[in-house]
Amino acid sequence: MKKRPCPAGARTVLLVEGGDEERLCSALLPPRALVWFVVVGRTSLAETLGLRKDAAWPQIRNVGVVMDAEEDVPASLALARSCFSMLGRAVPSEAGEVLRGDAGNDGLFLLPDNVAVGAAETLLRRTALPEITRCIDGLFACTPNPGTTVARRDKAWVNAWLSAARGEGRVDRVAEHGRAGD
Protein backbone atom coordinates (compact mmCIF):
# COMPACT_ATOMS: atom_id res chain seq x y z
CA MET A 1 0.00 0.00 0.00
CA LYS A 2 1.31 3.43 -0.95
CA LYS A 3 -0.14 6.02 1.37
CA ARG A 4 0.51 9.70 0.88
CA PRO A 5 0.12 12.01 3.86
CA CYS A 6 -3.47 13.08 4.35
CA PRO A 7 -3.92 16.71 3.26
CA ALA A 8 -4.96 18.96 6.13
CA GLY A 9 -8.73 19.30 6.17
CA ALA A 10 -9.38 16.34 3.86
CA ARG A 11 -12.67 14.58 4.54
CA THR A 12 -12.44 12.06 1.69
CA VAL A 13 -10.16 9.09 1.20
CA LEU A 14 -10.00 7.57 -2.27
CA LEU A 15 -8.60 4.05 -2.39
CA VAL A 16 -7.29 3.43 -5.89
CA GLU A 17 -5.81 0.30 -7.40
CA GLY A 18 -2.68 1.88 -8.82
CA GLY A 19 -0.92 4.93 -10.16
CA ASP A 20 -2.94 5.09 -13.39
CA GLU A 21 -6.22 5.24 -11.45
CA GLU A 22 -4.76 7.84 -9.10
CA ARG A 23 -3.65 10.08 -11.99
CA LEU A 24 -6.99 9.64 -13.80
CA CYS A 25 -9.00 10.52 -10.68
CA SER A 26 -6.71 13.47 -9.91
CA ALA A 27 -7.23 14.81 -13.43
CA LEU A 28 -11.01 14.60 -13.02
CA LEU A 29 -11.21 16.28 -9.60
CA PRO A 30 -11.55 20.03 -9.10
CA PRO A 31 -8.13 21.68 -8.65
CA ARG A 32 -8.57 22.42 -4.96
CA ALA A 33 -10.22 19.16 -3.95
CA LEU A 34 -8.90 17.87 -0.65
CA VAL A 35 -8.66 14.14 -1.21
CA TRP A 36 -6.41 11.65 0.54
CA PHE A 37 -5.23 9.22 -2.14
CA VAL A 38 -4.18 5.77 -1.00
CA VAL A 39 -2.91 3.35 -3.64
CA VAL A 40 -3.90 -0.07 -2.34
CA GLY A 41 -3.11 -2.47 -5.16
CA ARG A 42 -5.10 -5.64 -5.78
CA THR A 43 -2.75 -7.85 -3.78
CA SER A 44 -2.37 -5.63 -0.71
CA LEU A 45 -5.99 -4.84 0.12
CA ALA A 46 -5.62 -6.34 3.59
CA GLU A 47 -3.37 -3.39 4.44
CA THR A 48 -6.44 -1.16 4.10
CA LEU A 49 -7.28 -2.11 7.67
CA GLY A 50 -4.28 -0.07 8.83
CA LEU A 51 -5.95 3.17 7.69
CA ARG A 52 -8.22 3.04 10.72
CA LYS A 53 -5.12 3.50 12.89
CA ASP A 54 -3.90 6.57 11.00
CA ALA A 55 -4.15 9.85 12.93
CA ALA A 56 -6.09 11.37 10.01
CA TRP A 57 -8.79 8.66 10.01
CA PRO A 58 -11.19 10.35 12.49
CA GLN A 59 -11.66 13.33 10.14
CA ILE A 60 -12.59 11.13 7.13
CA ARG A 61 -16.30 11.18 6.25
CA ASN A 62 -16.29 9.86 2.68
CA VAL A 63 -14.66 6.74 1.27
CA GLY A 64 -14.34 5.88 -2.40
CA VAL A 65 -12.84 2.79 -4.01
CA VAL A 66 -11.78 2.94 -7.67
CA MET A 67 -10.28 -0.09 -9.37
CA ASP A 68 -10.16 -1.82 -12.72
CA ALA A 69 -12.70 -4.57 -13.41
CA GLU A 70 -9.94 -6.43 -15.29
CA GLU A 71 -11.31 -9.70 -16.74
CA ASP A 72 -13.55 -10.70 -13.82
CA VAL A 73 -16.14 -8.13 -12.75
CA PRO A 74 -17.62 -10.21 -9.87
CA ALA A 75 -14.17 -10.89 -8.38
CA SER A 76 -13.19 -7.22 -8.70
CA LEU A 77 -16.46 -6.18 -7.08
CA ALA A 78 -15.79 -8.57 -4.17
CA LEU A 79 -12.29 -7.12 -3.72
CA ALA A 80 -13.58 -3.55 -3.74
CA ARG A 81 -16.39 -4.39 -1.32
CA SER A 82 -13.88 -5.94 1.10
CA CYS A 83 -12.23 -2.52 1.53
CA PHE A 84 -15.42 -1.11 3.03
CA SER A 85 -15.77 -4.08 5.36
CA MET A 86 -12.19 -3.70 6.57
CA LEU A 87 -12.78 -0.02 7.26
CA GLY A 88 -15.99 -0.66 9.18
CA ARG A 89 -18.07 1.21 6.61
CA ALA A 90 -21.39 0.41 4.98
CA VAL A 91 -20.71 -1.84 1.98
CA PRO A 92 -22.14 -0.87 -1.41
CA SER A 93 -23.93 -3.84 -2.94
CA GLU A 94 -22.96 -3.08 -6.53
CA ALA A 95 -20.45 -1.14 -8.58
CA GLY A 96 -21.46 2.44 -9.23
CA GLU A 97 -23.43 2.67 -6.01
CA VAL A 98 -22.95 5.62 -3.67
CA LEU A 99 -24.27 5.19 -0.15
CA ARG A 100 -25.31 8.49 1.40
CA GLY A 101 -25.69 8.81 5.13
CA ASP A 102 -25.26 11.04 8.13
CA ALA A 103 -21.74 9.69 8.68
CA GLY A 104 -20.70 10.46 5.09
CA ASN A 105 -20.86 9.11 1.57
CA ASP A 106 -19.19 5.94 0.32
CA GLY A 107 -18.89 4.87 -3.30
CA LEU A 108 -17.47 1.99 -5.29
CA PHE A 109 -16.45 2.32 -8.93
CA LEU A 110 -15.11 -0.35 -11.29
CA LEU A 111 -13.48 0.93 -14.45
CA PRO A 112 -14.33 1.19 -17.27
CA ASP A 113 -18.09 1.51 -16.59
CA ASN A 114 -19.07 -0.56 -13.52
CA VAL A 115 -20.31 -3.39 -15.80
CA ALA A 116 -17.83 -4.40 -18.51
CA VAL A 117 -14.43 -6.06 -18.23
CA GLY A 118 -11.47 -3.77 -18.76
CA ALA A 119 -9.60 -0.97 -17.10
CA ALA A 120 -9.22 2.80 -16.88
CA GLU A 121 -7.55 2.61 -20.27
CA THR A 122 -10.65 0.93 -21.72
CA LEU A 123 -12.65 4.01 -20.74
CA LEU A 124 -10.02 6.29 -22.27
CA ARG A 125 -9.95 4.25 -25.48
CA ARG A 126 -13.73 4.56 -25.79
CA THR A 127 -13.50 8.36 -25.58
CA ALA A 128 -10.73 8.82 -28.15
CA LEU A 129 -11.44 10.92 -31.20
CA PRO A 130 -12.15 8.93 -34.41
CA GLU A 131 -8.93 10.05 -36.14
CA ILE A 132 -6.86 8.86 -33.17
CA THR A 133 -8.75 5.57 -33.05
CA ARG A 134 -8.12 4.93 -36.77
CA CYS A 135 -4.42 5.68 -36.37
CA ILE A 136 -3.78 3.47 -33.34
CA ASP A 137 -6.08 0.69 -34.58
CA GLY A 138 -4.03 0.73 -37.80
CA LEU A 139 -0.85 0.30 -35.80
CA PHE A 140 -2.37 -2.59 -33.85
CA ALA A 141 -3.59 -4.25 -37.07
CA CYS A 142 0.02 -4.97 -37.98
CA THR A 143 1.23 -6.04 -34.54
CA PRO A 144 0.74 -9.58 -33.31
CA ASN A 145 -1.15 -10.01 -30.04
CA PRO A 146 -1.09 -6.47 -28.58
CA GLY A 147 -2.64 -7.76 -25.36
CA THR A 148 -3.84 -11.04 -23.95
CA THR A 149 -6.84 -9.55 -22.11
CA VAL A 150 -9.15 -6.60 -22.72
CA ALA A 151 -7.45 -4.61 -19.97
CA ARG A 152 -3.93 -5.34 -21.24
CA ARG A 153 -4.89 -4.62 -24.84
CA ASP A 154 -6.40 -1.27 -23.88
CA LYS A 155 -3.39 -0.37 -21.70
CA ALA A 156 -1.14 -1.06 -24.70
CA TRP A 157 -3.48 0.95 -26.95
CA VAL A 158 -3.46 4.02 -24.67
CA ASN A 159 0.30 3.81 -24.20
CA ALA A 160 0.76 3.67 -27.99
CA TRP A 161 -1.52 6.69 -28.36
CA LEU A 162 0.34 8.71 -25.76
CA SER A 163 3.76 7.63 -26.96
CA ALA A 164 2.92 8.63 -30.52
CA ALA A 165 1.48 11.95 -29.37
CA ARG A 166 4.47 13.17 -27.36
CA GLY A 167 6.55 10.26 -26.28
CA GLU A 168 4.84 10.08 -22.89
CA GLY A 169 2.88 7.13 -21.56
CA ARG A 170 0.81 8.47 -18.67
CA VAL A 171 -2.98 8.39 -18.55
CA ASP A 172 -3.28 11.81 -16.92
CA ARG A 173 -1.92 13.32 -20.16
CA VAL A 174 -4.79 12.05 -22.34
CA ALA A 175 -6.74 15.32 -22.25
CA GLU A 176 -3.67 17.14 -23.54
CA HIS A 177 -3.30 14.76 -26.49
CA GLY A 178 -6.75 14.25 -27.86
CA ARG A 179 -9.39 15.99 -25.82
CA ALA A 180 -10.69 12.70 -24.39
CA GLY A 181 -14.25 12.96 -23.18
CA ASP A 182 -15.29 15.84 -25.47
What does it look like?
- Helices cover 36% and strands 17% of the residues.
- The protein contains 6 helices and 6 strands; from the N terminus they run ββαββαββαααα.
- It has helices at 19-28, 73-86, 120-126, 130-141, 150-166, 174-178, and strands at 2-3, 12-16, 35-39, 62-68, 98-101, 104-111.
- Strands 1-3-2-4-6-5 form a 6-stranded mixed sheet.
Entry summary:
The chain has six helices and six strands, in the order E-E-H-E-E-H-E-E-H-H-H-H. With 182 residues, the protein is α/β, with parallel strands linked by helices. A six-stranded mixed beta sheet has the order 1-3-2-4-6-5.
Shape annotation: elongated
Proportion of residues in extended strands: 15-25%
Task: Write down the overall mean pLDDT.
Answer: 84
- The succession of helices and strands, N to C, reads EEHEEHEEHHHH
How many helices? The count is 6
Helicity, as a percent range: 25-40%
Strand order of the largest sheet: 1-3-2-4-6-5
Q: What is the strand tally?
A: 6
For the largest beta-sheet, the strand count, sense and barrel status come to: 6 strands, mixed
- Termini, distance in Å? 34 Å
Whole-angstrom Rg: 17 Å
Low-confidence stretches: 174-182
Structural class call reads alpha/beta
Which short descriptors sum up this protein?
182 residues, disordered C terminus, 6-stranded mixed β-sheet, alpha/beta, elongated, 6 strands
